Structure formats: C-alpha cells, structure tokens
Amino acid sequence: MESHTVRPHRSADGPAKEQQLAWRLALVATDPVEVEDEVVEMLGNRIIDNAAVAAASVARRPVVSARAQALAHPMQPGATVFGLPPDRRSSPEWAAWANGVAVRELDFHDTFLAADYSHPGDNIPPVLAVAQHTGRSGRDLVRGLATAYEVQIDLVRGICLHEHKIDHIAHLGPAAAAGIGTLLGLEADTVHQAIGQALHTTTTTRQSRKGEISSWKAYAPAFAGKMAVEAVDRAMRGETSPAPIYEGEDGFIAWLLSGPGHVYTVPLPAAGEPKRGILDSYTKEHSAEYQSQALIDLARRMRERVPDTSRVESVVIRTSHHTHHVIGTGSGDPQKMDPHASRETLDHSIPYIFAVALQDGRWHHVDSYLPERAQRPDTVQLWHRIRTEEDPEWTRRYHSHDPAEKAFGGHVTITLDDGTVLEDELAVADAHPLGARPFSRPQYVEKFRTLAEGVLEPQEQDRFLAAVEELPDLGAGDLDRLTFEVPADRLGDTPGTSRGIF
C-alpha cells in the first residue's frame, strides 16, 4: 500500500490533477490487476449475505415502496430486482435503488470500521445492476466489486466523516462509481469525473442517523448507489464534474471536514498490487448496529449469571467513544430510551439492545424489535438502568490499526440489588474473523437459508447458491442468476397502498 496525502488548496495553488485524490482513486480503478481467489471467495460470501438480508426484508414497507418505484422504470435489457422474476427488468439505477434498500433495511450485512465506518456491501447492488444491464461476465463483476470494496475501505481508513456530522455514504458514492468504472473498463479520465460527481451528490448530514431515525437510513446507501450509476453515465457522455472535489478551496475537506491546513492520509494499493480490502471487513450475526454485535454476544454470555433481571440495579457499559456517542447514552438522544421509538431508532440504542439480549439470550431480526417486546414493563425497567461510558482504552483499541488489538466491544459491570457485582468483557463479536465462531462460506449459507426460510422456495434457494458457486465463471448475460424470485403472495405488495408520482 502507498499513502496518499490530501489537503485543501487555494485555487491558485493547484493541486495538479495527478495529485488529486479522485485521480488516484481512478488509477486504482483502472489498474488491470487480477482478483485473487481469496477475494473472489469473499465476494461470493457477501453476495450471499446481501441476498439473505434482502430475502428477510422483501415484504417490509420501505422495500415494497422502493421496488414499486423501480417497477415504474422498466427497461430492456435492464437489471433484476430482488423478489421479482429475472425477466422483469428495471433501469439499472432504479434496480440499484430497490435492491440497495432491500439489502440495507434490516441493518444486517457487512461492515468495516476505522477512522469512519461503512457497510461496503452497499456497493454490490449498483455494480451488479450495471453489470446485468451491460451484459458483463462474472469475472467483470468480481473485478468491479473488488475495486468498490477497496476504495470505500481505504477512504474509511483515512478520512473521518462522522466527527463532522457527514453521513458515511459520502465514501460509498465514489466507491461505487470507481467499481462501475472497473466493471466497464473505462479510462481513468472518465472514472475521475464520475468519482467527483458521485462525491458531490452524495454528501449529506448525519441527521439520518440521529434523533428519531426514519426509513431513510435504509434508503441513504441506495441513493448513493443510484447517484453513482448516474454519475458514471454522465461521465461516459463526456460531462465533467467539480474539481478538485476533495482538495478545492470551496471543496469537501475545506468546508465540510477538517478545513484548510488539515492533512488526511489515505492508503491506496500501488500499481499492480492486488485489491484485498474486502478481507479486512466482516459481517453481522445479529440485525443491529455493528458496535452492538459483541455486546449482544456478551449479554448472552452474562445471562447465565443473571437468571432474574428484575434484581439488576444498574448496568454500566464502558466502551469506545463512537459506541458511547452514537448508540449509547452519550448520544443525548431521548429517543434511544423511548419504548415507542421506531425500529431504526431501537437498532441504534445499545441500552435497549443489551436489555433484550440479556433477558432473552438471543437477538432476532423481527421479534426483538416488535412494539410489544420494546414496551414490556420489565424490559423498560431494565433498559432505563443501563448507561454507557467512554473508556479511553476501548477508544484506542477501536482505532487501532493492529487487527489483533482492534476492538468493537466493551466492559460490562452489572450490579444486583444485594450488592453483588458481575463483570465481563468482549472485544470482538463471535462472528468476527478473530471471534469465537468466525464466519466462512458455511455460516453465510446458513444465514441465507435461515433468513430465506418461508420467503424463498427451497429449490430457489438452491438455484441461487449454485449460481454464486460459479461466480467467476458466469458468462456474459448470466448475471441475472444472482437474484431470487419470491412467490407473489409473499412480496407484501398491496395494490393502491404504495402510490406516488411514478
């Protein structure tokens, strides 16, 4: 890896195109290096992972709405939409939109956390949609996805967005544009322009993840993917974008991030170096914010020592700055303690999540969020006795570059009504590559079959998984096999209830 430094410049001072971050990302995208077998295998895992979550969410209202919007934009050859027959196609940007919402709705797919955080699996819907529409092969697809994962993960390593209240999709848009550029074999100049346009149009605030969190949390990454498709289309037509987009005097860093004088360092693969970023990411075993994964596992473990949660006087979770301030009591969000809060809000409330996991000894993507579950009096009592605190050591470990030291969990102290103190800690989730039960292909397949049960017919599950096994060998026009069809009565479509402009 090579370190690329990026900082704001006055218009009169450059920088030259060759020194701009967007150009360097374009060079990564256009480097013809082959994709390693280990990366191909992991890409297949994440395609399965995305499909698993999409199957579980296919009948949920935000997904139904997004699918209806995509169906209003039919196109041939077009791209497939999760749940529909493969010959029912939509324009690629709208297919990316619908599929992106399905993948993101349950907050249940892969993650990478460093200076910022991300769900790099959000790149798969837009890159796959363009690949289907343009008749590309499995080999083309894995090359495009390897680029998209690499670019997003490298941006997340080097540039923190959340401290400036900028949403993480600002790294996703450029990554998806770069991945599509690789997929289509575009020239660096074209990819450069697409990356600039994608960043410019996908920079939004973090209010989408603050206060009462709405369904837009699922739509935001889908929006970034849709914008990336459109940005590449414009760039291919010869249209240009604001430049220098990162370093400009009135640009992204100068006014939205750390401002003039600040230098960011982004690690990027050298020319000819394989793109291996995806191997540093990890998926979720539980449908909740990633920082809660280890704490759910810890709650399940501690439950054996707390048979009666009505005796709990207090629970203190000492954890990283990010966990405390984003999903903990350090956020200052009263909604995180509200039994009538939305599912999206509860998903970002570690006091609620820990309370339910401690009581139930499990976490379920539907049952754990039901209103009757959230409003149960004994749960509310326990929930309101839980608080988080920032611990500098957990914050340091959260930001560590050493994989063996990096941690996303915390230390929990439970005090009972007789003064008994129970303590335990867990650094990484059980499903993490360094956890007690790391995920590999069998676990991804098990997750898919569990979430697809009762939604996809067994033979359709088998057909989809067989297609993923052939991923790098799929021929041009065969990528429509990387979707799934759901019986019409399981799609959640109710005529007349999802009407809009289209």
UniProtKB/TrEMBL annotation:
Its EC number is 4.2.1.79. GO terms for molecular function: 2-methylcitrate dehydratase activity. Signal peptide: none annotated. Residues 322-342 are annotated as: Disordered. Residues 286-471 form the MmgE/PrpD C-terminal domain. Keywords: Lyase. It is an enzyme of class 4 (lyase). Pfam families: MmgE_PrpD_C (PF19305), MmgE_PrpD_N (PF03972). Residues 34-260 form the MmgE/PrpD N-terminal domain. It catalyses: (2S,3S)-2-methylcitrate = 2-methyl-cis-aconitate + H2O. Belongs to the PrpD family. Monomer. PANTHER family: 2-METHYLCITRATE DEHYDRATASE (PTHR16943:SF8), 2-METHYLCITRATE DEHYDRATASE-RELATED (PTHR16943). This is 2-methylcitrate dehydratase.
